[in-house]
Structures are given as C-alpha cells and as structure tokens.
Design a protein that fits this description.
Blueprint (H helix, E strand, L loop, with lengths): L2 H23 L3 E6 L10 E3 L5 E7 L14 E7 L4 E5 L6 E7 L5 E8 L5 E8 L5 E6 L4 E8 L5 E8 L6 E8 L5 E7 L3 E8 L5 E10 L2 E10 L4 E8 L7 E5 L5 E7 L6 E7 L4 E8 L5 E4 L5 E5 L3 E6 L5 E6 L4 E3 L5 E5 L3 E4 L9 E11 H7 L4
Length: 383
C-alpha cells in the first residue's frame, strides 16, 4: 500500500471517528418503540445504575377483532448509551406485562408476566440484562394479580405488589423473593379490597415501602406502608385520602433518609405530593399538584424531586416543595440512579392499518428520548 493510499485511509478514519464523536455528543437520543406495552402504568423503561444502558418493554396490542386477550407479543429491549442504539431484543413472548424493575448493575431485569387463558399463569421472570435471555422464574400465587415490581440496589431482593384476585377477603398483596434463587422471603397482607400501586426498597436497610389504595364503604382510603422484610412486620404507615383508580407512587433518595409520595385525591386527577423523614416518621412538607403522577425520582444530589405526568415533567425543591421548573411534552419518564440521564416518552402517534381483520384498527408508536438530566434542569421553565 502506497503512502498516499495510507494517507487517504487515515483521513477517512479520522472523519469516521469525528462523526462518531459528534453522534455521541448529540442529544437527545431518540428510540421509537412499536406499540409499547400499555399495561404498565409506570416503569416501562429503566436504567442501570451506571447510566450506560436503558431497558424498555415493547409489545403488540392484543388483537381486538378476535377478542383474544393474548394475541400480541411482548419483548424486552436494551438500549446502549450514549450511542442510543438497540443492543438486543429478547425473544417475543405471548404474555401480558404488569411491571418491570432493573438491578443497579444492569445484570438482571425482573418482569411480572401473565400468560395463557383463564385461569392465567402469573409469574415473576428474571431476564439477563446482558443478553435478554430468560434465566429463572417463579410462579406467583393464583389468588394474586401483580401490578408493580421493585428491586433493591444489589439485586439480592425483588418485590412484587398487586391485589388479591378476589376482593372478598383479606389476602397477601406484596411478595418478596431472593433475587438470585427466586426463593420466597416474605409476604405481607393488605385489606381485602386493596391495590398496591407502587413499591420501593429503602437503600441500605431491610425496609420496603408501598402505596396501598383501599376501597371502603365510606369512601376511598390510601396509605403509605413501610414493612421490615427481615422481621416480616409492618413498621409504620401514614394514611391519606386517595382514589383507588389513581393509586400513587413513591421514591427514596439515595441515602434512604427521605421518602417522597405522590397520590391521587379524587376522580378529577387532583393529587398531592409529600416528602417524609424516614427516621423521624414525620411529614416534612406537602403540596397540591394538578395532575396524576406517572413517575417520581430524586436528582443525584438530592436537592430536586422530579415528577412526571401525562403532559409535563415538574421539578421541585426538596427543601420546601416549591416548584423549581417544568418541562412540557413529556409523559412517562425514568431517571438513572446516578442522576446522569433521563428518558421520557413524547406524545404518541397513531397510524392506521389497511384492514382491521388482519391487524387492529390502529397501532401506536411511542418515541423515547434520552438526554442528560443536567440539560433538563438547565432548560426548565421557571414559574
């Protein structure tokens, strides 16, 4: 090879490297999911702790023409960062998905699934975060319907929350498993007509918190309950007025000293946001919020609380609950544990199919955008 040819290839290589570097620094990254799984109210995508990979659920809508519940297929996707490219997709499964959680190291992804015809088979499945293969699973009780999944930072414990299959009696609605062996560790009961809408492990402790919405004859009642997994007991709880239709969300800060809770107070979508001191078991502040929450997380330094809704991302000061800014055109969102990246879903687009007898009358495509959290904090519109 001549010196001139070598020089040409060196220039080409330099251009390619420059283009790659430019792509790596270009934000936001955009990933389009075909008919994303709609049954997960929150947590349809989550980061590993390092912020180098985002996991998302993608699934086809059940065929409404044939009236079969499990016509569609669902799969798990892994998106590498900062490139914003899909690393792999798991084998499509004919299941419904009701919750997803990712271990901090990104090696395990836990998914609550429902398969088959009535009576349905409900399972908690552990996927490999590196390959997307199904590694292990445990069958959930027949009288239990999953609605949310949480995993602690090390991946050694995973919890599933939901509701009894029958509201006729009190039943266990929270189940805790060992993350590696999938052996059962603890179960916690809630009142019979109740739904557990969200769960979170308190970092560095044996505590697990959950939002429980209870339907009573005298109206709706919600409460945030904190359980001790090692002792198998309820440590403490706070009661608030909440609709079982909206439920609530919660999140611990990185140190496990503060607990944020967002819950719905009526059928019109009015809600409340509260911050609690875990050690003192006292409410630090409480503010009224105008929309139902679709995501809740602390910023890396703990000074901000990020809350997603159907239309915007709101940023609050953890010192006093004063809103620090808002960002429009977002829906569900996720923040990685290191506070480096944020992923959010922009408003969905619809496209028609030529024949409803072949596919559903319409299909939904969602665009997920990924960008640094600092960008959002810097561009937030102050009220």
């Amino acid at each position: 090879m001549t010196t001139r040819t070598t020089g040409v290839w060196a220039v080409v290589a330099a251009v390619l490297v420059g283009m790659a570097a430019l792509g790596a620094d270009t934000w936001p990254k955009t990933v389009t999911l075909e008919e994303p799984e709609r049954l997960i109210s929150v947590g349809r995508f989550a980061f590993n702790a390092a912020g180098t990979r985002l996991f998302a659920m993608e699934g086809n809508r059940p065929n409404t023409v044939k009236k079969t519940r499990l016509e569609g297929l669902t799969r798990l996707l892994a998106i590498d960062l900062p490139a914003g490219t899909v690393a792999w997709g798991s084998d499509p499964q004919q299941v419904l998905v009701f919750g997803m959680a990712v271990s901090a190291d990104g090696k395990s992804v836990f998914v609550a699934e429902e398969a088959g015809a009535h009576p349905f088979t409900r399972s908690l499945v552990r996927y490999s975060g590196q390959t997307g293969n199904r590694q292990d699973s445990v069958t959930l009780p027949k009288d239990f319907v999953a609605r949310c999944v949480a995993v602690n930072a090390s991946g050694s414990r995973v919890a599933v929350g939901g509701m009894p299959a029958s509201f006729a009696r009190s039943s266990f609605a929270v189940h805790v498993f060992e993350g590696t062996t999938m052996n059962a560790q603890a179960s916690f009961a809630v009142p019979g007509r109740s739904l557990v809408t969200d769960l979170a492990f308190c970092p560095g402790t044996n505590l697990l918190a959950g939002v429980v919405a209870e339907l009573r004859k005298d109206g709706h009642r919600g409460q945030c309950v904190v359980w001790d997994i090692a002792g198998g007991t309820r440590e403490w709880n706070t009661t608030f007025s909440a609709s079982t239709l909206g439920g609530g969300l919660l999140a611990f800060d990185a140190g496990g000293s503060r607990l944020a809770v967002a819950y719905r107070t009526d059928r019109l979508g009015i809600a409340m946001l509260e911050l609690w001191d875990v050690a003192e078991r006292t409410r630090t502040w409480s503010v009224r919020i105008p929309r139902i929450s679709r995501g809740l997380a602390f910023s890396q330094d703990g000074t901000k609380l990020l809350r997603g809704s159907y239309t915007e991302l709101a940023i609050y000061s953890t010192a006093d609950g004063v809103i620090a800014g808002t960002v429009s055109d977002t829906a569900d969102f996720a923040v990685d544990a290191a506070g480096q990246y944020i992923a959010y879903e922009v408003p969905r687009t619809y496209k028609a199919w030529p024949s409803p007898t072949v596919r559903p009358a319409y299909s939904v495509a969602a665009t997920i955008k990924i960008e640094p959290v600092a960008t959002r904090l810097a561009t937030a519109v102050r009220p």
